[in-house]
Amino acid sequence: MSRLRVDYDELGLTYNSHRREDPRLASRIHAGLGQARTVINVGAGTGAYEPSDRWVLAVEPSATMRARRPPGSAPVIDARAEALPFDDDAVDAAMACATIHHWQPAATGLAEMRRVAPGPVVIFTWSWRASRSGSASIWLRGSPASGRCFRRWRKS
Ligand SMILES: C[S@@+](CC[C@H](N)C(=O)[O-])C[C@H]1O[C@@H](n2cnc3c(N)ncnc32)[C@H](O)[C@@H]1O
Fold first, then answer.
1. Which of the following CATH numbers is that of domain 8-154: 3.40.50.970, 3.40.220.10, 3.40.50.360, 3.40.50.150?
2. Cβ of residue 40 lying under 6 Å from some atom of ligand 1
3. In the predicted structure, residue 53 carries a pLDDT above the cut 80
């Protein structure tokens, strides 16, 4: 999987103005969490797709993104997927949306999710290699900050 270098401390300044949940994805993500009562959301950003009917703890390394979580959001800690600061089997389930393409490598973060959550591990992602002219080009469309980030990514 290619890793996308994006500075979320910059992109995060405007992230909430263009990030929208897709209700079809939301229902599948929430169904995937099954009966889990405790959930960690890894690479949580500003909280998209976090369920409101269970206990959730968000994990997010960007201070800008953490600061832009709406009032009433789940609590958030500063940590990365590759080294989750939790004991084995600490929570029922784990989720990660639109983030594993940033992990270094993704496999390490996925193994960490499996280690800390014995139940469902729900991932929403897509192939960036296959979609550079497709979904990647419309992701966050309209954001000047994202435009700058993607131009940098294409150069690297
Ligand atoms: C496209 S945003 C997605 C945020 C949120 N999950 C959503 O669906 O809106 C990607 C997020 O992954 C975070 N991220 C980047 N590298 C990470 C890592 N190594 N571990 C955990 N999160 C990471 C970024 O800070 C950013 O908030």
1. 3.40.50.150
2. no
3. yes
Long-range contacts of 51-55 (CB under 8 A, 24+ apart): none
Helices (H), 33-143: 63-67, 106-116, 128-131, 135-138
Cα(109) to centroid of ligand 1, in Å? 12
Centre of ligand 1 from the C-alpha of residue 77, in Å:
13
Tell me how far CA of residue 73 lies from CA of 35, 52, 155, in angstroms.
21, 9, 36
Mean pLDDT taken over the chain: 84
Q: Looking at the predicted structure, is the pLDDT value of residue 84 above 60?
A: yes
Give me the sign of the Cα torsion angle 34, 39, 41, 47.
positive
Whole-model pTM: value is: 0.84
For the chain, give every domain's residue range.
Answer: 8-154
Going by alpha carbons, the residue nearest to atom 22 of ligand 1 is 43
